[in-house]
Amino acid sequence: MDIYKLYVDNDSFDRTDPYDPIVQATKALRTVDHNASESTAIHLSERGDLYVAENHGIITAAAHFEPVPIDGDPEAWIHVLGVRPEFQRGGIGSAMIDYFAVRCLDQNIRQILLHPTPTSLGFYQKLGFTQDDDLRPGKPLKKIL
């Protein structure tokens, strides 16, 4: 399996091709965000924030990952991470989190934040993401690296 940043522009996108990377990435994003569209994936790709996991030419997962190396307390955000249903429970999501952790450490970023869905909360907790003691609704989970 390979994990990499997907760069695609609107001109090279082919909605009719089921193997088009944007079509495949959108399928993965929709497992978490039902409103995700090809234009969402293209926009993230053009910004350089769309990461995908690929196995034998098939994009099995996609994520909107944004490292923010700011002064003071640098952090990274996983806005969306989706694994296509037929590939779930195979370690792909965990591998993507590990990949992002390495990218963060390379940039001297020591924490990753995210807002889990109710169904993904347990997954992220198993990977070491925690929430502050106050447990306010909407408060992000974080993983200290």
Question: How would you summarize the topology of this molecule?
Answer:
Elements: E1 2-5, H1 21-29, H2 38-47, E2 50-55, E3 58-68, E4 75-83, H3 92-106, E5 111-114, H4 121-126, E6 141-144
Parallel strand pairs: 4-5
Antiparallel strand pairs: 1-2, 2-3, 3-4, 5-6
Helix pairs in contact: 1-2
Keywords:
145 residues, alpha+beta, Aminopeptidase, six-stranded mixed β-sheet, 6 strands
User: How much helix is in the residues?
Assistant: 25-40%
Count all strands and give the number: 6
Number of domains: 1
Order of helices and strands: EHHEEEHEHE
Determine the N-to-C terminus distance: 23 Å
- Count of helical regions: 4
CATH class: Alpha Beta
Beta strand %: 25-35%
Query: Could you name the CATH topology?
Result: Aminopeptidase
**Average pLDDT metric:** 87
* CATH architecture assignment: 3-Layer(aba) Sandwich
Q: Major sheet: size, sense and barrel closure?
A: 6 strands, mixed
User: Which ranges are low-confidence, i.e. pLDDT below 50, for 5 or more consecutive residues?
Assistant: none
Overall structural class, as computed from helix and strand content, comes to alpha+beta
Please tell me what the overall shape is: globular
Overview of the molecule:
The chain has four helices and six strands; from the N terminus they run βααβββαβαβ. The chain is an alpha+beta fold and 145 residues long. The chain has one domain: Aminopeptidase, CATH 3.40.630. It has a six-stranded mixed sheet. A hairpin with a 2-residue loop joins strand 2 and strand 3. Helix 1 packs across helix 2. The longest helix has 15 residues.
